[in-house]
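To the team - iron/sulfur cluster complex, inputs and output below.
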Amino acid sequence: MDRKSTKDKPLSEKTTEDFAHYFQTTYTPPDIKKARKRGRDKIEVHYDFEISDNLRQIGEGKKFLIRTYGCQMNEHDTEVMAGILTEMGYEPTERAEDSDIILLNTCAIRENAENKVFGEIGHLKSLKVEKPDLIIGVCGCMSQQESVVNRILKKHQQVDLIFGTHNIHRLPNLIQEAMFSKAQVVEVWSKEGDIIENLPKVRHGKIKAWVNIMYGCDKFCTYCIVPMTRGKERSRRPEDIIQEVRHLAAQGYQEVTLLGQNVNAYGKDFEDIDYKFADLMNDMHKIDIPRVRFTTSHPRDFDDHLIEVLAQGGNLLDHIHLPVQSGSSYILRKMNRKYTRESYLELVKKIKKAIPNVTLTTDIIVGFPNETDEQFEETMSLMEEVGFEAAYTFIYSPREGTPAAVQKDDIPMDVKKERLQRLNELVNKQSAASMKSYEGKTVKVLVEGESKKDDTVLAGYTEKNKVVNFKGPKSIIGKIVEVKITEAKTWSLNGELVKKAIEVN
Ligand code: SAH
Ligand code: SF4
Ligand code: F3S
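Output:
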């Protein structure tokens, strides 16, 4: 069916509201005001996800491609969408020109993330002209923003389908609509309190796996769009998480990373049970899987019970990513982080005391509106004082719909860039020093595969998440081995295989 020929006038001539009644199709756009609200609705868990028989055949003989732009949560959503598409008969491809459906799983965290996606949407236009039946879909966090959806509707006619982060389980029906509808299909729910449990997944690899433990964020840091794009905090039931991790262990997975925007808020929304993140980690400790990581941890909710549980070690690794954002208590207050420089340092002290070998890494934003030189210097000194071994550093990017975005900002961009550069120099210095300290030591490495540059070299990760390159047989891929470090580079380590695989089970 030639969909193009059925379109009666260019979309650029219509307003978004026209679509709902003009075409008989789904038009549920995002609403940022609704997305901000936090209702008291009970969180329902659905275990009855099913793809109907007629939708299961839609993809037979067809191929899909999903491009992912966001965080681990987004990567994991891509695994779910790949699972759904596979159950619909689609096969994966890496090539856009071979695809029958292309989904862009987007990120809204900073402006440059969004620009990349708009660039890609532009590139895909010519392919859509060549292949009018190709379905191009935009999903992920950008779709949750009204301005983005309006821009796509007005300027990017090649996009057939826009759906939000709460609408992933609706993918089969949405694809069907996009195939047969004359207009762009838009379905973005702005407020969501439900959890859909048994969605299919095609995981990327058989060694490490992501496991969602909660969705959404209620922290409302003033710079951040995530509470609007991911909805309110809601935790998966402990038994569902435990069962998933046990199942992964039984399949031979060596590592799981528990995912949430703020994993320390896990369980706070349970009304019937008193079961928090520390309890969950305690249960993870009992599961026979060699490595358990988690991300991301908000300093505010990092309690003593959690520290005590993590100090047991074993499969709970001694690497904690603890985003600080700024070293200035004033800026932290403006960011609504709800902790101070002093309380953060106090927390770090407690963690270091309980877990003496702990590695700490962080996220930092420079150039928050009106950040003074002195306030920036406080971030520099905190970086040293804590001794972070790595940090993701960002220049503040105003996000429409967030409180910080409407603040006047007197700090010029070159000052912000200079600060970022200085901070990065310090981060590199600290990272290089921590790498150097591994020389001569023996570390446990989970072998993930061959190095891209040289197939006689293997690459893997230490417990503290450092990359190690070393020579060894391919038979140890997927196993944990001991490697003696011979040389430190800034971002990776070189070593020699000491012991063959440690038999884990
Ligand atoms: N939930 C996590 C963060 C997820 S976003 C947490 O609170 O730790 C990852 C990082 O992106 C944040 O830690 C922050 O450093 C950065 N970030 C978020 N919003 C930003 C913005 N508007 N501009 C620049 N960086 C931002
Ligand atoms: Fe954003 Fe703050 Fe929530 Fe992290 S905790 S996702 S930075 S609002
Ligand atoms: Fe980006 Fe959404 Fe993750 S905004 S960082 S993909 S939660």
